[in-house]
Specification:
By secondary structure, the protein is mainly β. The chain is 15% helix and 41% strand. It is built from five helices and 18 strands. Strands 4, 5, 6, 10, 11 and 18 form a six-stranded antiparallel β-sheet that branches. A hairpin with a 3-residue loop joins strand 15 and strand 16. Helix 2 packs across helix 3. The longest helix is centred in the C-terminal third of the chain and has 14 residues. It is elongated, with a radius of gyration of 22 Å. It starts with a helix and ends in an 8-residue tail after the last helix.
Length: 315
Amino acid sequence: MVFKKMLSAFGVGGPSVDTVLTNSNTRPGLTLDGQVNLVGGDAEAAIEQVVIGLVTRVEVEGHDTEYAGTMEFHRMAVSGPLKLAPKQQLSIPFQLPVPWETPITDVYGQRLHGMTMGLRTELAIARAVDKSDLDQVAVHPLPVHERILEAFQRLGFRFKHADLERGHIRGVQQTLPFYQEIEFFASPQYASTIREVELTFVTSQRGVEVILECDKRGGFLSAGHDAFGRYQVAHTDADRVDWAQVVDGWLRETTSRYGSLRSQYGPSHGHGHSRGHGMGGMVAGAALGVAGGMVAGEMIEDAFEGDFGDFGGDE
C-alpha cells in the first residue's frame, strides 16, 4: 500500500485529465467552451485546483540574441479544491473568454505559417506533480480583420509569415505582453517603393488599431528604411468601405511621410529584418511587458514545449 501511494504521488496510477472543447475554433472577444473530464486514479486524490490557460509561442529578443518560448497569456480557474475518489469520473464545464487582443492563427481555414495556439489544462494535486493536457485552438479573424487581410490580397501582396513579438508598441493601449506581426511581400505595383509590409492589429471591444511597418527601398542617393503608420478603425466599418482603397491610401500615406513618423517613433533598427527588433523604434524596450497583464509573466519552458507537436506547420 505504501508503495502504491508513492507511485501515485509521481503520477503513476494517479488521476487523469482530459479537456474536450465544444468547438476549437473561436475569434477574439468570443469564448472557448468545453469541459474538463477528470478520472480518479487508484487512490483518493486531493486536487487543489483545476486551471485552464491559453498558450502560444512568442519571439523574445535579448542582448543580440533571439529565441522563441511558449507563453501562457490568459488563465482561469475552473474549480477550487476537491476530492476525487478512486476511479471517480467528474466533468467540469467551462466558458473561457478569449481576450480581444488574442492573435489570429487561421485565415479561411488555413493555419498562418508561424502561429501556434493551445489551451492548457492544469490539474494541481496536493503534494504531487501537476498533470496537464494541451488542446489545439484556432483563432479566426473578426470581420474587420478579414476585410483588411482580403484588401492586401486584392492589392497583390503575398503572405510571408506571422509571429508574435514580446513587448509593447509605444503609444498603443495593449493588454497582452506581445503583439502579432503579419508579414507580406510587396505586390508588383508597390515593389518600386516597398520590399515588405508588416501588419499588426491591436484589437479592443471598440475597434482595431492598425499598425503598418513598410520596409522602404532606398533611392538613388538614399538608403532604405522603415516607415510606420497607425490607423484606427471601428468594428462597424467592416462592410461600409472599400478596404482595398483604404489600405492603398494607408500605404501611400505611410511611405510618403517617413520624416515626421521617424521623429515620432524614434529611429528604426535597420530594415528588412524587423523581427529581431520588434517594431524598431516603436517598441519601448526589450524588457517591456514582463509584468503587464501577464500571468506571473513567465515563459513556460517545460514539458509543454514538446506537446505543441507540429502545430503552426513547420516549427
